[in-house]
Write a structure and sequence with these properties.
about 325 residues; alpha/beta; Malonyl-Coenzyme A Acyl Carrier Protein, domain 2; four-stranded parallel beta sheet; 15 helices
Length: about 325
């Protein structure tokens, strides 16, 4: 393991009952990570590596935008990934080692990295290529994503079946929220019917139909890179975002990633599994508060804490230390 990876994954005893979860694309925002840049050399180092690989000043782009460029898959995925890995590393360096990791959508790659199955530089290469391939795919397909709140899954599935093809459920976020991916004309048509059922439909800030068959071009393009990448068995228990099943081997990681762009995310089941595993606290490592919101929407008994800002991070460390203790004590 190289020096940077060793710094990012120090060997400390596991802290019981702590789940660390990672968000995906769409959680990026103008101003993200700036306070971390000012306080952490590790954050600056990881982002410098990402900036060099992309030949782009990511710190400047995150600070001032423009927002539409920051939201492009080729940019959004590396910045969310890098910020999330950095925050997880800072948590571990504080002595809070997760007993379980999981990631929503692109956050699956972050979880695999933090679990020790791949070093940061190699994971960054995968994420950059994934983002570029998805960007090309999105430009070729007139697709998008729409969150549907207030209707159970079977009602949404019935509406999709009645309106034909080109729309799929791509995220099972909660019993009352499903995310749809598809061609935009088909999504607009379906929205009219879902509105009549009393649904609250809103477009997501993700420029493409993620986790649907419409991503086949990007998925096929990334497959050779996944095959050529070396993975290790995870050192930390790891959940698959599509099934919430445990991933124990490098071979299982490769299989999960090969189907990742095409498979729906079952986050509701991931949250339920985290609770079943006895985790008392769930820390969302990365920008935004999306996963905390989904934990509340699932009426989960687990306490979900955020790290979107340094202030959030410090408050989270205090709560985790008071709730379940610190492994370095």
């Amino acid at each position: 393991m190289d020096q940077l990876a060793a710094e990012s994954h120090p060997q400390v005893a596991s802290t019981p009952s702590l789940a660390v979860v990672f968000p995906g694309q769409g959680t990026e925002f103008i101003g993200m990570a700036e306070d971390y840049f000012q306080s952490s050399g590790l954050v600056r180092e990881l982002f410098q590596m990402a900036s060099d690989r992309l030949n782009t000043d990511l710190r400047a782009l995150m600070a001032t935008g423009p927002p539409n460029v920051l939201a492009e898959a080729r940019i959004a995925q590396p910045v969310v990934f890098t910020m999330s890995v950095a925050i997880a590393s800072l948590l571990i360096n504080r002595g809070f080692n997760p007993s379980l990791v999981a990631g929503h959508s692109m956050g699956q790659f972050t979880a695999i990295t933090v679990a020790g199955s791949i070093d940061f530089p190699a994971a960054l290469n995968l994420i950059i290529e994934r983002g570029q391939l998805m960007q090309k795919n999105n430009e070729a397909v007139n697709g998008g994503m729409m969150a549907v709140d207030g209707l159970p899954r079977h009602v949404v599935e019935a509406a999709i079946a009645e309106n034909g093809t080109d729309v799929w459920i791509s995220n099972l976020n909660a019993s009352s929220q499903n995310v749809l991916s598809g061609l935009k004309p088909a999504l607009w048509q379906l929205k009219k019917e879902l509105d009549q059922h009393g649904a609250l439909c809103r477009w997501l800030n993700v420029p493409g139909p993620a986790h649907s068959p419409l991503m086949s071009m990007a998925s096929s393009g990334l497959a050779p890179r996944i095959t050529a990448t070396t993975f290790r068995d995870p050192a930390i228990p790891l959940l698959a975002s599509a099934s919430a099943a445990s991933i124990h081997t490098a071979a299982a990681i490769r299989a999960e990633l090969n189907g990742h762009m095409l498979s729906p995310v079952n986050w509701a089941k991931c949250v339920a599994t985290i609770v079943e595993r006895g985790c008392g606290v769930m820390v969302e490592a990365g920008p935004g508060r999306t996963l905390k919101g989904l934990a509340l929407r699932n009426q989960s008994p687990i306490r979900c804490l955020t790290t979107s800002t340094v202030e959030d991070f410090d408050a989270t460390c205090r709560v985790v230390g008071e709730t379940i203790g610190c492994a370095s004590r």
